[in-house]
Design goal:
- The protein has 16 helices and 11 strands.
- It is an alpha/beta fold.
- The longest helix is centred in the C-terminal third of the chain and has 25 residues.
- The mean pLDDT is 96.
Length: 500
């Protein structure tokens, strides 16, 4: 297997710029890796090697002709399958969209193409991004490269596992309540949820429009920063897009200085319910930060106690509205009853056959929360809690520049352990959900291995809205401190896949 798959995106970009390797060589190396391991890992729902290689050849031609190229031109990437692509099916992990070819590219996809990143394929996810394990994908789960019997997180388990298994140096995910960050934590990768509106949602199949955010996944902080710089920016097609630039994340990731920074430890996101190995690694990182001159302060966010309850009213309510468009009339699956095929019966039969159990559960819950007599009692109350959480963050950021917590309460659990217990599954997102409710940026980066099972642990960094650069500054420093202790990158601890 080619050594190119072990290179970071920044290293590959340097080799490409100097002419030491071609984009075709790099892309082919990753496609060969997928051919060898993805039958076992199942990161991808769709790949078109010919299209990826053609895109790579075009970058090589442009470079040879002396055309001006972006810093990641020629570095291949994988894209979560809830972002529309004109040359590949977009299913959002659901049977109801099986085989659907969209008529337009998502803005993020268009930016990737314009920047010269060959698209390797579309990655697996929980159906319509509803889940924490990819066990709710209609096409079967992705697997964790560290242990194929364990989940790679969700909903973006395909994007995290494709990077962790060296099938792609970069990937795009989406994060509604932790769907980039929790998968990153359990697969030993880096994932960032940018500030709400910093990256366009145009062409992202909506789950909950006020919570969804597209973001980057990679194997280190610098690569993640470089990718966010490619995909960020104002988009007139997205009414929630921020009008201003947030600056260069790449430059922030190169500062490697945290002396004097105030690091806030969130009181409510530690202790009971968190695996001992997760807590131990988290405390070790706090000591690293303190020894480097950062000021460690405890902050209290009492409304976080109600975050999961509020989230699982707001999200289903928005989802029930967003998913109403899948009605068998305009696109997607159509199931016609044998008799009396009225539009209502066709719609009911199609949605019954096309949606999986978790999607149905949330549509029912959301419809009820928005119904007459329940709106104020449930949905209205959840919106009030959301405001309280935003105020808690405001108070916390008055005392700290960056907040930290474990990304998830546990390491990757085994398939089947929680699939029949929705409440247990929802608790995986206890630390990540508040950031989506407040619209602030969050990052998960590797934080060592838990002593109990030798599996990856993540640490979460949170910053005020529009201050994404702080995540990359602190994250890059902490990553370097870890590597100095461990003697190698976190991802290099991963066992070789035994795929037979």
């Amino acid at each position: 297997m080619s050594d190119l798959i072990r290179k970071t995106a920044a290293e590959l970009a340097g080799l490409l710029a100097s002419g030491e390797v071609s984009s075709v060589e790099v892309t082919k190396a990753h496609l060969d890796r997928s051919a060898a391991v993805d039958k076992a890992v199942h990161s991808y729902l769709y790949q078109n090697p010919e299209s990826a290689l053609a895109s790579a050849a075009e970058v090589d031609r442009a470079r040879a002709a002396g055309e001006k190229l972006g810093p990641l031109a020629g570095v291949p990437i994988a894209v979560k399958d809830n972002l529309t692509t004109t040359d590949a099916p977009t299913t959002s992990g659901s049977k109801i969209l099986e085989g659907w070819i969209p008529p337009y590219d998502a803005t993020v996809v268009a930016k990737l193409r314009a920047a010269g990143l060959p698209i390797l394929g579309k990655t697996n996810l929980d159906e319509f991004a509803m889940g924490s394990s990819t066990e709710f994908s209609a096409y079967g789960p992705s697997r964790n490269p560290w242990d194929l019997e364990r989940i790679p997180g969700g909903s973006g388990g395909g994007s995290s596992s494709v990077v962790s298994s060296f099938q792609a140096p970069l990937a795009i995910g989406s994060d509604t309540g932790g769907s980039i960050r929790f998968p990153a934590a359990v697969t030993g990768t880096v994932g960032t949820k940018p500030t709400y509106g910093a990256v366009s949602r145009y062409g992202l199949i909506a789950l909950a429009s006020s919570l969804d955010q597209v973001g980057p996944v990679a194997r280190n902080v610098l690569d993640t920063a470089m990718l966010q710089d490619v995909i960020a920016g104002h988009d007139p097609f997205d009414s929630t897009s921020l009008p201003e630039s947030l600056g260069s994340m790449t430059e922030a990731a190169k500062k490697l200085d945290i002396k004097g920074m105030r690091i806030g430890v969130i009181k409510q996101l530690s202790g009971e319910g968190f695996q001992a190995g997760v807590t131990a690694r988290f405390n070790e990182s706090l000591n690293l930060l303190a020894n480097a001159g950062a000021d460690i302060v405890e902050v209290s966010c009492p409304s976080f106690e109600y975050a999961i309850a509020a989230y699982y009213l707001i999200l289903p309510a928005e989802a029930s509205s967003n998913l109403a468009k899948f009605d068998s009339v305009r696109y997607g699956m159509r199931v016609e009853p044998n008799e009396n095929a009225t539009i209502e019966r066709v719609m009911a039969a199609t949605r019954e056959a096309g949606f999986g159990p978790e999607v149905k559960r949330r549509i029912i819950l959301g419809t009820y929360a928005l119904s007459s007599g329940s709106y104020d009692k449930y949905y209205g109350a959840a919106l009030k809690v959301r405001t309280l959480i935003q105020r808690d963050f405001d108070a916390a950021f008055a005392k700290a520049d960056v907040l930290v917590s474990p990304t998830g309460p546990t390491t990757a659990f085994k398939f089947g352990d929680k699939i029949d217990d929705p409440l247990a599954m929802y608790l995986n997102d206890i630390a990540t959900i508040p950031a989506n409710l407040a619209g602030i940026p969050g990052m998960s980066l590797p934080n060592g291995l838990a002593v109990e099972d030798g599996l990856p642990v993540g640490i979460q960094l949170l910053a005020p809205a529009r201050e994404d650069a702080r995540l990359y500054q602190v994250g890059a420093w902490l990553e370097q401190a870890h590597e100095n202790i461990w003697g190698k990158r976190m991802i290099d601890f991963a066992p070789e896949l035994e795929v037979g």
